[in-house]
Amino acid sequence: MDDKNRYLNEREIIEITKNAMNKTFGDFGLDESYNLRNKGGLGGFVEENIFGYKQNNDDNYDFINAEIELKVTPVKRNLNGTISAKERLVLSMINYKEEALVTFKTSSFYKKNKRLLIWFYLYLLDVHPVNYEIINYYLLEFENSLHYKVIERDWNIIHKKIVAGKAHEISESDTEFLAACTKGANSRVLVDQYNSDIQAKPRAYSFKTSYMTYLFRNIIHDIAPYSPLVSEDEWMKNPLEEIYKEKMSIYSGMSQQQLARRFNIKSRAKQINFMIAQRMLGISGNKKSTAEMDIAGIIFRTITIDKNGRPTEAMPFKAFEFTELINTPWEESTVREEFVDLKLMIFVFKEVDNVITFERIHFWNAPNEVVDGAIKEMYEECATLVSNGDAFYFNASGKVIDKFPKENRNSNGICHVRPHARVSADKFDLPIPDKVTGITAYTKQSFWFNKDFIEKILKESLF
Fold this sequence. Notes:
By secondary structure, the protein is α+β, with helices and mostly antiparallel strands. It contains 15 helices and 20 strands.
């Protein structure tokens, strides 16, 4: 094996790519003895066994003459039949000291990733990669895409922190499409940065999971599930947060009753504020996001505050599985993934003298100190309880009660754990039967932000 195939032209590269579609990795010689933790994983396998060149880590493109970088990434089929990206697409490592001295057009990111040949394969749970099918590909030339300005704006946000000696403060939720994700064998690995004596976590440029889902669904397959609230032209000119704040400001000061009439909402359900927020965003039914929110990874929540600005309720997130708690390290967990990428758009309603009024929207990104601090500690505390078979007990009336931290008991001041199921019969299996109660399944649980913490978020007095 040599590097001559790194000099293939674009036509030859695409021809090999097309011939690989709808085949499995096993069709190309992958067997069950292959260690996917080898450098490069399935991407390395594609380089060496399909394109026939040695894996590389140099500054050149994978395909030197064609100026194309190759990436291999998984997608997954959801319960509703849709397909979404399984994970972010990691691009190239960031050298803080070198990156501080360049511009977007002269950066290593721009050079290495301006033409990406992305292979998508279908990930299947509990199936060996031998049987993963390569299902599609896309040649992403972001310089010629409508999203070029957003990617450049994201790069500049990251670059600004690097130049200021604040690489240790970079958060993946700072940006919309392009992120700086953590890399390293464990969370204790630190490296030197530019213009600061404080060491920072090693990071790599990456396209967010939400953006990769958009690429697969909307660009490759031209699936547009609903009309966007924000035009492409608007978005390219201004950050999404600014656009949304301006669009939602027209409803500020309107009462819940006025808004319900305006949007023809007849329901008096507890979820009426959620329904109003949906209509403000131009969506309805079961939809929880606009097209551009999906792409940028923004989720919305509604919260009601009292006359003193104190929230009347805690804020829930996705339910977690007990099996993942004990089998998945924090750094690789879907819980961490959710919070690392968390970009919240909070619709704030205020209740004074029994009249509820829409006040504003508030954007918030989860700081690293919160994600890899309090939330990580709670995740690991819950994991220990479950893995020891010591997470539950019988109360005086014989009811099974969990020992997970609650808002008013053993909380860390930021989050707690409580049920996230409409009915108690909605459960997840316990990987280890509880020693005291003997139960093998329990009502779905999720992390919730405490009311006091939400108050701090809304008052922007976190740190």
